[in-house]
Amino acid sequence: MTRQRELIYGIVSAAPEHRTAEEIYDLARAQMPSLARGTVYRNLGLLVREGLIRKLEMPEAPARYDREPGPHPHLVCQRCGRVEDLATPEALLASIQADLPGPITGYDLKLYHICPACRGSGKDGV
């Protein structure tokens, strides 16, 4: 693994936040000033393909990167875009699996809400 890829992987895997490529680029560039934006995007793609991290596609927002590559649900704030991991709803998955002809091989579950910080700020009147 190249030094650049190790740095990028370290940034993604060390934080519980689900950062965008631009946020990862800014953090990586602070440690390696000569790092090019394209290098970050290319290496994020390689890390996703290698199964070391997960890319979360977000509607109408930049993709985010998750240190946990396995399937698990996320909670997404509709105001600030914060993404949090949720515990896997085993009973829900078992119920769905019971109605399928074959095994579930993966999933992408996002639940949307207004986070406590945004609710408390009065941004949406909730």
Could you explain the architecture of this structure?
The protein is of the alpha+beta class and 126 residues long. The protein has a single domain (3-121), classed as Arc Repressor Mutant, subunit A (Orthogonal Bundle), CATH 1.10.10. Helices cover 40% and strands 19% of the residues. It is built from 5 helices and 6 strands, in the order H-E-H-H-E-E-E-E-H-E-H. Strands 1-3-2 form a 3-stranded antiparallel sheet. It has a 3-stranded mixed sheet with strand order 5-4-6, with no helix packed on it. Helix 1 (3-14) crosses helix 2 (21-31) and helix 2 crosses helix 3 (37-49). It is flat and about 50 Å long. The mean pLDDT is 91.
Number of domains: 1
CATH homologous superfamily heading: Winged helix-like DNA-binding domain superfamily/Winged helix DNA-binding domain
- The top-level CATH class is Mainly Alpha
- Describe the main β-sheet briefly: 3 strands, antiparallel
List SSEs in N-to-C order. HEHHEEEEHEH
The total count of helices amounts to 5
Derived from helix and strand composition plus strand pairing, the structural class reads alpha+beta
Number of strands: 6
C-alpha Rg, in Å? 17 Å
Mean pLDDT over all positions: 91
CATH architecture assignment: Orthogonal Bundle
Shape: flat
Q: Record the strand order, biggest sheet.
A: 1-3-2
Low-confidence stretches: none
DSSP strand (E) fraction?
A: 15-25%
Distance between the termini: 47 Å
Helix percentage: 40-55%
* CATH topology title: Arc Repressor Mutant, subunit A
